[in-house]
Amino acid sequence: MRTAVFSTHAYDREFLEPAAQKTGHELVFFEARLTPQTVPLAAGFPAICSFVNDSLSREILTTLAAGGTKFIALRCAGFNQVDLAAAAELEIRVARVPAYSPYSVAEHTVALMLALNRKLHRAYTRVRDSNFALDGLLGFDFHGRTVGVIGTGKIGLCTAKILAGFGCELLFYDVYQNPEAATLGRYVPLEQLLTASDIITLHCPLTPDTYHLIGDATLAKMKPGVMIVNTSRGALVDTRAAIEALKSGQIGYLGLDVYEEEADLFFRDLSGVVIQDDQFSRLLTFPNVLVTAHQAFFTRNALTEIARVTMANLTAAEQGETLVNEVMVPR
Ligand code: NAD
What we know:
alpha/beta; Rossmann fold; 2 domains; seven-stranded parallel sheet; 12 helices; binds nicotinamide-adenine-dinucleotide; oxidoreductase; D-lactate dehydrogenase (NAD+) activity
């Protein structure tokens, strides 16, 4: 299928091109993010392939439909960026890559936790400056600490398994209970998870229910000095509230791989540019905040699987087969 691929980087081509060759799909790569300004590039393409920060609003979907697009292959798991009701009305089908490597995201989550605890980001620069003093680098044992996992699907479960290996006590909150997770820890009400956890890690999708799940009210219930890690979606955390909680010490450590306004920042080299997002800049001033730019998924294994499943989705759509990874409007 002739497909316009948006938000393409060299690493995307490296994995998508061989997968397309094997399956006979014709990919046309655009570096641009999909926005109201760039959507005309998709005119005449029956399919487009997009990533996490490509907008698929009603306005953009309407332009895509008018240009003949019938299928959207998301090369990611999350689909909060898609107006699914509009897509259904416009008869555009949408498929995603539901599980490419939960290990990649879980391992990065735990990397953020460990780095924050042992202050590796500070130790790295300190040692390079021949400062071998340990003051300020004191950490704690993960063994015996209570970790609250919000969202116990594929990534939450993988994260829980790693933390169980460290000897952490695990508390879970989810709208559905995962029997495998239940063997590693206890499901508790959200309030109990918030009050009892030393570390809270977010692995639920971004929905109207989870928007700003971490905000003034939930932060106030947590243990002072709590560690929060978000590798899920930026808008699960109210950045303004997090900054206030960092200033007061209520948050002791904050690890973010995602940020609610990341679309204007991440996946690009802005090193010569003055950042205009004051909240983001403020976050970077805290010594106990560690931000990575949506790289949790970024392993060779994950990119190989994303390319393979994306091509399979294109093939199924083109040949009218059952679209096993179709994303539908939630009932
Ligand atoms: P999943 O669908 O397997 O699991 C999500 C879990 O969240 C499910 O168990 C679901 O029941 C639960 N959930 C839904 N609504 C909830 C709510 N209101 N409160 C509590 N739990 C709720 O998804 P996954 O593959 O584990 O991915 C989790 C999230 O990770 C995705 O939604 C995506 O946004 C994010 N993600 C991030 C990256 C990255 O690179 N940073 C990569 C992949 C996925």
